[in-house]
Amino acid sequence: MATKKPQDSTLSKVYEPVNVEKRVYEAWKNDGHFTPKASTTGECFSLVMPPPNATGRLHLGHALGISVQDTLVRYHRMKGDETVMVPGSDHAGISTQVMVEGIIAKQGKTRHDFGREKFVDKIWEYVNEAKKSILQQTAEMGASCDWSRERFTFDEDFHKVVNKVFVSLHKKGMIYRDDYIVHWCSRCATVLSDLEAVPKPEESKLYNIRYFVKAADKSLIVATTRPETLLGDVAVAVHPDDKRYKEYIGKTLILPILNKEIPIIADTRVQMDFGTGCVKITPAHDHLDFEIGRDHELPVIPVIGKDGKMGKDTGKFAGLDVLQARQNIIEYLDNIGNLESIKNIESSIRKCERCDSTVEPLVSKQWFVKASSMAKKVKKAMDEGKTTFVPERFNGEFMGWIDNMRDWCISRQLWWGHRIPAYYNDKGEMIVSATPPKEEGWVQDEDVLDTWFSSSLWPFAVFGWPTKSEDLEKFVPTSVLVCGRDILLFWVARMMMMSVELTGDVPFKHVYLTGMIRDEHNKKMSKTKGNGIAPETLQEEYGTDATRLLLLLGTTPGNDMALTKEKAQGYRNFTNKLWNATRFIKMSTKTTPDYATLEKDLLKNYKKLHLSQKWILSRLMKVVEDMNSGYEKFTFGEAGGKLYEYTWNEFCDWYLEISKIVDNDYSEQVLLYGIMTILKLWHPMIPFITEELWGEFGQKEPLIVSPWPTVHKEFISDEIENGFETLMDMVKKIRNVRHERGVAPGKFVPVHIVAEEKEELIEEFGDVMKKLARLESITVHKKRPALEKVVSIVAYPFELYMPLEGMIDLEQEKVRLGDKIKEQERILRILDAKLSNNAFIKNAPAAVVESQIAKKEEAETVLAKIREQLGEIEG
After folding, report:
1. Cα-based distances in Å from 196 to 319, 351, 526
2. pLDDT at 2
3. What's the whole-number mean pLDDT along residues 642-658?
4. Out of 326, 388, 431, 830, which residue is the most buried by the measure of CB atoms under 10 Å away?
5. How far is it, in rounded angstroms, from Cα 374 to Cα 383?
6. Is the CB of residue 813 less than 8 Å from the CB of residue 806?
7. Ranges 225-234, 529-538, 647-656: which has the least confidence
8. Helical packing angle, 371-383 and 493-502, nearest 10°
9. CA proximity to 659, closest of 620, 611, 621
């Protein structure tokens, strides 16, 4: 047991995060507290951090994810679970290449000026610097991850695993190469996945074009939003049940401009209520058309190139930008009399997620994964409850995607990334191999793999898969994945598919989805809008702990949150509150026993404690229960709100004030046990300040590895809590009366209490109540005393009466209240006049009218209260 004089506290009067955070983090790291330790519970808790793109600085969304992950990890570490948190970063194929191409473009160069090998070297230079920045930011957010396990999705070992998986799945027939329609971004010069080609509403036009029936004086009106693809039409389709066109099915049409013969076909996928019900079929440039064309064995005629311009076989339109070609074709159709009409509509146009360019559907030879086959296994695992979503509502969106899974295009036309391990020779032969062929004459595929292919292996590859190891056995499936809801389908679904296919099990037991971060106007934060806040900006101004509280408290999984600097300042104030409370306790106590001894002594001597001490311990145990439940149910943000209220209001305000009055043999023990338990409870969320404060108490081990608080049922008493709540209610109401009546702070006044029951509460708490409420005396009665001119207060089951005479000058108070009544009546007259003015009601914005109504209601309430106070004086 360590002993110190009260004044020995080394804490400054104000908490300065800059003096604490780096030092404390380095101590944790150097002392090996981030590495897994043998479990005392028989349980393991593993969490693999989603690897941020190695393209620059982290944003608030990353900071939110890190805060949630680290909070969970620190909780389970203190619980005694064998805990591991694996950090890393992602090579981010398209994003990183685009970033570096933008850098060299400022030098007037393109990647082709360097060649593939030297350009990739430049990317490595950029990525290595970006990785350092990202990992440093992760550490600065307090992430207690095992840095010895740090991985990169393009490091040498990971590359070997990626190649091995590709080869294995190809041998099983799960990966194949074929001509298929894909989403193509001409600016990024690569294929995109369905999820990277984002549908966006856009003002558009619907063109009605007349196609003449061969050898008949008849024609059909075909509706299209893309007349430039007319040159690649191979058919016109109608629904077989559409009575308007039954007679035309099987006949031949003359394709305008080209005067080419194309068939009229029937297909149930045609929407009868769209346009005219006749649609042109261009398999090379529309996903549905491609499927219809394939089923009807129609040819595929591409007319738009990968550069976003009309192809060389499009005659006088060759080389034109798509939009210019569209205009020219419409003018030509109009001139020859085939343009029937143009209608303005809103349609859904797919845009590149990264550069916002319009995405072009093109038929291209690409590599695919039979994702639809994998999805069936994922569905089975989900039906068996092997993975749960937090919040549960995302299960429906996830399963909807799984149930409608299409094959996944995994090749990308980039230079940066895992190059596809396929090799070709001039004989047209192909070898798929994890290592290059030894013979000469083989050339590797130019494409790289979709970034999501490599990152889909992340949760098990980082633990050494496919090599069997103790880590794999203990930590996979991982306990929980924490990620943004925006990558549920991008990443979570693909990890589930790959894990179930390759390991036979799910990659994680729970998926915790965070929401998006918005500004005070509920708008999504972004650099382009100028409303974004960098995490380091908040950390520098308010400290990392306050930043984490901003991101954690009051939030619920999956829901967006609005953040402001004002909220951050509030949490900065809270950290100071905790700091000063600890400082006060440290300076008010003479001894600091170890935590276990404090706990043991209080349990042993519980019956000897004062009512207030029993109350604060009971409330503390309830908060421990709330936090336990919050972590187990992933509602720790909500539970943290309860801990916040307990810390600020009940312990730091009420109990610390009471502790100055109640002085018995256990006062120090309750203070020390209370604050030390509070530090334990807060540590997962605000690790820096809590560790620094814990160090003031000379304990054997740092807070990060100290045991999580135990719930002692012996301390819990609903009866004591209810009784104490009543006592506090009386103090608050007496204080309110003093404030309303303008009683001088130094004036002590009497109070009469009618107590038909629970009189013992007042007896035990009376002395404390006198000092807290500045009472001259407390007189207890069995029934209402014969008193005149009093303020009556109800604090069930007690009635309180405060004599006005002696508390205030009655005549002066009459005058004061009379003046206040006149002022409120004047305010009401003005508001009544405004609200009875029809012109105001008609012309003013609804919000303004509502605010005036609210002001009137408030004024009426205040007036009624003042009149009530005057009535109490006049008797």
Report:
1. 27, 8, 19
2. 34
3. 96
4. 326
5. 15
6. no
7. 529-538
8. 90
9. 611
